[in-house]
Backbone:
């Protein structure tokens, strides 16, 4: 089955807000190559004034490699923290691809926004 853009966007939801230099992104639903435009805007690795991205991923039901790539791009330059419980299907794709090492985890958004994140070893 082929999804049109409207149907693809209806399968996912992204909310983004800034608190100081922290960009908080709430993700819910399915994310794949057909509907990552909103996520790509929220996770812009060139965003100025953003020291860290916090992702509330508790509502994610599916993520493909395209969406994972969008999440990884800002992690090259600054911390990306996964807040809350990472859903099992998402945790599995992170583990299989080795991308789990690119993210820090926190129990909730408040902790993720304020925790000390050690620098990544090169």
Residues:
């Amino acid at each position: 089955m082929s999804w049109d853009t409207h149907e693809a966007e209806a399968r996912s939801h992204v909310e983004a807000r800034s608190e100081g230099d922290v960009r908080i992104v709430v993700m819910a639903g399915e994310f794949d190559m057909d509907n990552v435009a909103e996520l790509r805007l929220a996770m812009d690795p060139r965003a100025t004034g953003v020291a860290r991205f916090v992702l509330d991923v508790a509502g994610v039901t599916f993520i493909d490699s395209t969406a994972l790539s969008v999440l990884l791009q800002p992690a090259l330059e600054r911390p990306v923290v996964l807040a809350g419980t990472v859903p099992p299907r998402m945790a599995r794709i992170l583990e299989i691809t080795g991308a789990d090492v690119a993210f820090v985890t926190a129990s909730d958004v408040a902790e993720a926004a304020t925790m000390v994140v050690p620098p990544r070893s090169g």
About this structure: The chain has five helices and five strands. Strands lie at 12-19, 22-31, 52-63, 80-83, 104-106. The two ends are 42 Å apart (CA to CA). Confidence is low (pLDDT under 50) at residues 1-6.
